[in-house]
Design a protein that fits this description.
Layout lengths: L2 H11 L6 H11 L7 H10 L3 H27 L2 E3 L14 E8 L7 E2 L2 E2 H14 L6 E7 L3 E9 L2 H9 L10 H18 L5 E8 L3 H4 L5 H13 L1 E6 L8 E8 L9 E10 L7 E8 L2 E9 L6 E8 L4 E9 L9 E8 L3 E7 L6 H7 L9 E7 L13 E5 L6 H12 L3 E5 L6 H6 L15 E5 L7 E2 L28 E4 L7 E6 L4 E9 L2 H4 L6 E8 L8 E2 L6 E2 L9 H20 E3 L4 E4 L8 E5 L5 E5 L1 E3 L2 E6 L6 E7 L7 E7 L26 E2 L5 E2 L5 E3 H27 L1
Parallel strand pairs: 2-5, 2-7, 7-8, 16-17, 16-18, 18-19, 19-25, 28-35
Antiparallel strand pairs: 1-38, 3-4, 5-6, 9-10, 10-13, 11-12, 11-14, 14-15, 20-22, 21-23, 23-24, 24-25, 26-27, 29-33, 30-31, 30-34, 32-33, 34-35, 36-37
Length: about 750
C-alpha cells in the first residue's frame, strides 16, 4: 500500500469528529431527570410557542460546527484531484512538483563565447525554470563536479532562496563525475518522496555540455540501472549547453628535465600543450614566470588535436623552494591556460648508501658521484646497515640498500615511515639476501599498510649465461640506452641473478628484463591507504626500485668451486647510467609531493621552532586556514586537504620570526581541456539532450505533467468561513435566547 495514501486516509478518519457535537448534545440530554413542578408548567407553555424556531436555530448551529470539523479533516488529509480524472488522487499526496536541478560546473563549463560561459547559460535556464514554476513547487539543487554537491538537499519552497543559491555556483576546476550525480539524484528523489508527501510529481532537469570526459562513463550498466530508478520516480529533462565546434588551447603538463635542481645550473622544463582548432588559433605565446617575475617566453605553433612539446629554462640563483607559472594567452577557456609548478633547489642532494659490508659500496658511490668532490651536487654517506636505527633517514633525499641480509621489525617501520613521506628507496639484491626474511618483512602487507616492496623473493638463479633485455626501451630508466649500442646494456655479462616474481595484483612493473623473461629492474610507487589515513598522510608515497643484481662484485656463487662472481655489472659501462636513472626516479617523488591535483592531501613538516605547532596555510585566493601540527617520528607534521583551488599555496609557522614560504602547487585535471562531445546516440534515452516536456514559449513550464486541483486549500477556506459563521450564529441565537 502507498504509505502516503494510508496517511491521508487516516487523516480523513478524523472527519468522524464531526459527530462530536451531536454526541455531546445527546449526552447532555441524558444527564438531566425531568420533574414537573408548578412554576415550570407556565414556563413550558410559553416555550412551546417558540419551540420550532429554537430547534431550527440549534440544528443549524450544530450543522455548522460539524462542518467545521469535517472540512478541517479534509484539509489535513491533503486531497487533490488531478485533471482528467474523477477524484483520482483520493487519499494520496498533494499535487505540487518537486524539481531537481542538476548543474554541471566542471571547468569545461567555463568555455564561453560572446562573453557568456556555458555555466552562465545553465544558470540562466535554471532561473527560468524556477521563475515559471507554480506556487507550492519545491526545488533541490545539485552541483555536478568532482563530487555531487547538495547545495539544496531538501526541497526549498521559496524561489528567492533557490535563485540566490543558483547565482552562487562557481566553476569547479575538475572533472564532473556522472556516476556520483546520478546516485545523488536517485537518493534525493527517494528521500523527498518520503518526507514531502505533497510533492506528488517530480522532474529532474539536467544542464550539462555533454563532454566526453564526463559522459562516456554514463554508458555503464550501473548508470543505466540508476537512471531506471530515477525514471520510476520522475521525468528527466536534459539540456545541451555545448557547442559543436570549439577553439581551445591548453597546457597539459610540465616536467623538469633534471632529476634535481641546484643553484647556478640551468633548470630545463618540458611543457606539453594542445589546441583543438589550430585553424582558428594557429599559435600562442607561452610565458614562464618564476616567483612572480617573467623570465622567458616562446611562441608555440599548434597542430589540430596534437600534442606540442617545447622546452624552457631558467637559472635559480638561490636555494630553497620556488614557484613557477607557465601562462598561455587568454582564449575561450582560461582555466587550462595556467600551469603551476613548485620546485626545491638544493645546494646538495644527500644520499645514504647502506650495506652489511660497507667497502662493497665503492662502485655504487662512484656511480652516484663520479666527481667525489666537496663541490659536488651530491653528498654520499656510506653506512653499515646495522646503523639504520641510529640515523635520521628523513634527512636524506634517497636511500640505497645493497645486499642487506635481513631486516628487523623496527628497521622495517623506519623504512616504511621514510617511503610514506615521499622518500625514494633503491634495493640491490645479492648473495646475502635472505628470501624468507624479505618476504616476511618488506614484501608483507598489513591491514593498515601495503607492502614496501610488492614482490615475491625466490632466491638466486641457477648459474648460467644471461643477458639483459630492454624490450622496446619504453621505461624511463632504460630510454637513454635507445640507439646507444656503446652503452653496454645489451652486453652486460650476468652469470647469476636474484629471481623475483611480480604478483598479479602488485602495482610494481618491470623496467628491464633478463633474457629468461624474469624481471631485472622493478619499479613501484608506495600507496598510502586513503580510507585509513587521508587526513594525515598523502595518498602517494615515494618510489621503490629493486635491482635483481648486486651493486658490487663481492656477491659470489658458492655452489661452484672455486666460488665465482655473480656478475661484473658494477664495473660495466651500463652501471653508472642505470644508477643515475634510479636516482632521478627516487627523488622525483619529492617533486610529485609538492605538485598536487585538486582534492589531494598535502603534508608538510615544521622547520625550526618546534614549539610553534600552528601553521597558517594561505590559499591562492589569499584566504587562510590554521592547521595544528602533530608529533610523529620526532618531527611536527601538518596536513592540508582543502586543495579545491588551482594555484600556489603558501604556509608559515605562527611563531614570531617565521616567514611565508612556498609549499605546494595545485593544478586541474587537464582531461577537462578536451572539449570533445560524447556520442549522444550511445547514451541511454533518458540522458540524451532535449527539452521535450517543456513549453519552449514559456521557457520552462512543464507541459507533460497533468495539472491538479488542490482541495486542501479550499477546505481551509471553508473552515475559516464556517468559523466566522459559527461565531455569528452563536452570538445571534444566544442573544435571542436571552
Amino acid at each position: 500500500m502507498n504509505p502516503f495514501a494510508f496517511s491521508s486516509a487516516t487523516m480523513l478518519l478524523w472527519g468522524l469528529a464531526a459527530l462530536a457535537p451531536i454526541l455531546i448534545h445527546l449526552w447532555n440530554r441524558r444527564r438531566y431527570r425531568e420533574t414537573d413542578w408548578a412554576a415550570m408548567k407556565f414556563l413550558l407553555s410559553a416555550m412551546k410557542k417558540n419551540r420550532r424556531r429554537i430547534q431550527v436555530e440549534q440544528l443549524l448551529l450544530l450543522l455548522v460546527r460539524c462542518a467545521i470539523l469535517l472540512f478541517f479533516a479534509i484539509a489535513l488529509a491533503d486531497i487533490s484531484c488531478t485533471g482528467g480524472t474523477n477524484f483520482a488522487n483520493f487519499g494520496g499526496p498533494g499535487s505540487a512538483t518537486h524539481t531537481v536541478l542538476v548543474i554541471d560546473h566542471s571547468y569545461s563549463m567555463a568555455y564561453g563565447e560572446e562573453g557568456q560561459t556555458r555555466l552562465d547559460k545553465a544558470k540562466e535556464m535554471a532561473r527560468r525554470i524556477v521563475n515559471d514554476a507554480a506556487e507550492g513547487d519545491g526545488f533541490t539543487l545539485i552541483a555536478m563536479g568532482r563530487t555531487a554537491k547538495d547545495i539544496i538537499s531538501e526541497p526549498a519552497f521559496d524561489p528567492d532562496d533557490v535563485l540566490r543559491e543558483i547565482d552562487q555556483i562557481e566553476i569547479d576546476p575538475g572533472v564532473a563525475v556522472a556516476d556520483l550525480a546520478l546516485a545523488q539524484v536517485e537518493g534525493t528523489l527517494r528521500i523527498a518522496s518520503r518526507d514531502f508527501p505533497r510533492l506528488q510529481r517530480a522532474q529532474v532537469c539536467l544542464l550539462t555540455d555533454y563532454g566526453a570526459t564526463t559522459w562516456e562513463s554514463g554508458i555503464s550498466q550501473t548508470n543505466e540501472q540508476l537512471l531506471k530508478k530515477i525514471e520510476e520516480m520522475a521525468i528527466v529533462r536534459a539540456f545541451d549547453l555545448g557547442q559543436p565546434t570549439t577553439t581551445n588551447s591548453a597546457i597539459l603538463s610540465v616536467r623538469p628535465l633534471s632529476p634535481f635542481l641546484t643553484p647556478g645550473e640551468p633548470a630545463r622544463f618540458r611543457i606539453e600543450l594542445s589546441c583543438d582548432n589550430a585553424t582558428e588559433l594557429p599559435s600562442q605565446v607561452v610565458q614562464m614566470l618564476v616567483d612572480g617575475k617573467l623570465v622567458s617566453q616562446k611562441i608555440v605553433p599548434f597542430v589540430d588535436n596534437q600534442l606540442v612539446s617545447i622546452e624552457m629554462e631558467t637559472v635559480f640563483q638561490e636555494p630553497g623552494t620556488h614557484s613557477i607559472e607557465f601562462h598561455l594567452d587568454k582564449d575561450l577557456l582560461s582555466t587550462d591556460n595556467h600551469y603551476f609548478v613548485v620546485v626545491e633547489v638544493k645546494e646538495q642532494l644527500r644520499i645514504a648508501c647502506l650495506a652489511d659490508n660497507v667497502p662493497s659500496l665503492k662502485f655504487l658511490k662512484l656511480a652516484l658521484d663520479p666527481t667525489d668532490s666537496a663541490q659536488s651536487s651530491v653528498k654520499i654517506d656510506t653506512l653499515s646497515s646495522s646503523s639504520l636505527l641510529d640515523i635520521d633517514l628523513l634527512g636524506y633525499d634517497a636511500v640505497y640498500l645493497s645486499n642487506v641480509a635481513r631486516f628487523a621489525p623496527d628497521e622495517v617501520a623506519i623504512l616504511r615511515g621514510y617511503v610514506e613521506r615521499g622518500g625514494g628507496l633503491v634495493f640491490f639484491l645479492g648473495d646475502h639476501v635472505n628470501a624468507a626474511n624479505w618476504n616476511a618483512s618488506l614484501a608483507a602487507a598489513t591491514p593498515q599498510a601495503p607492502a614496501i616492496v610488492p614482490l615475491k623473493f625466490d632466491g638466486p638463479s641457477q648459474r648460467g649465461e644471461y643477458f639483459l633485455d630492454p624490450r622496446d626501451y619504453d621505461h624511463a630508466m632504460v630510454q637513454p640506452f635507445r640507439g646507444q649500442q656503446a652503452g653496454g646494456l645489451l652486453t652486460t655479462p650476468v652469470w647469476t641473478y636474484y629471481r623475483v616474481t611480480i604478483p598479479e595484483d602488485s602495482p610494481a612493473q618491470a623496467a628491464l628484463w633478463f633474457g629468461t623473461g624474469d624481471p631485472a629492474i622493478i619499479t613501484s610507487r608506495y600507496q598510502t591507504p586513503a580510507e585509513e589515513t587521508a587526513k594525515t598522510l598523502p595518498q602517494q608515497g615515494g618510489k621503490v626500485i629493486v635491482f635483481c643484481l648486486p651493486a658490487s662484485t663481492a656477491s659470489v656463487d658458492r655452489s661452484v668451486e672455486p666460488p665465482a662472481a655473480w656478475t661484473v655489472f658494477p664495473t660495466w659501462p651500463s652501471f653508472p647510467p642505470l644508477v643515475q636513472e634510479s636516482l632521478a626516479q627516487a627523488v622525483s617523488s619529492q617533486l610529485d609531493r609538492r605538485n598536487r591535483q585538486l582534492g589531494d592531501v598535502f603534508e608538510g613538516v615544521i622547520q625550526g621552532d618546534l614549539g610553534a605547532n600552528l601553521i597558517e596555510v594561505i590559499r591562492p585566493d589569499r584566504q587562510s586556514s590554521r592547521i595544528e601540527a602533530t608529533a610523529r617520528d620526532e618531527r611536527l607534521y601538518w596536513s592540508f586537504d582543502r586543495t579545491n583551488q588551482v594555484g600556489i599555496y603558501y604556509a608559515k609557522s605562527l611563531s614570531a620570526d617565521s616567514k611565508k614560504i612556498v609549499e605546494f602547487a595545485v593544478n586541474p585535471d587537464t582531461r577537462e581541456s578536451d572539449l570533445t562531445r560524447v556520442a549522444i546516440d550511445t547514451l541511454p534515452i533518458g540522458l540524451q539532450p532535449g527539452d521535450h516536456g517543456f513549453d519552449s514559449a514559456g521557457g520552462g513550464q512543464i507541459s507533460a505533467l497533468p495539472s491538479s486541483l488542490e482541495l486542501f486549500r479550499y477546505a481551509l477556506i471553508m473552515v475559516l468561513g464556517l468559523l466566522f459563521l459559527e461565531s455569528f450564529l452563536a452570538y445571534r441565537y444566544g442573544a435571542a435566547a436571552r
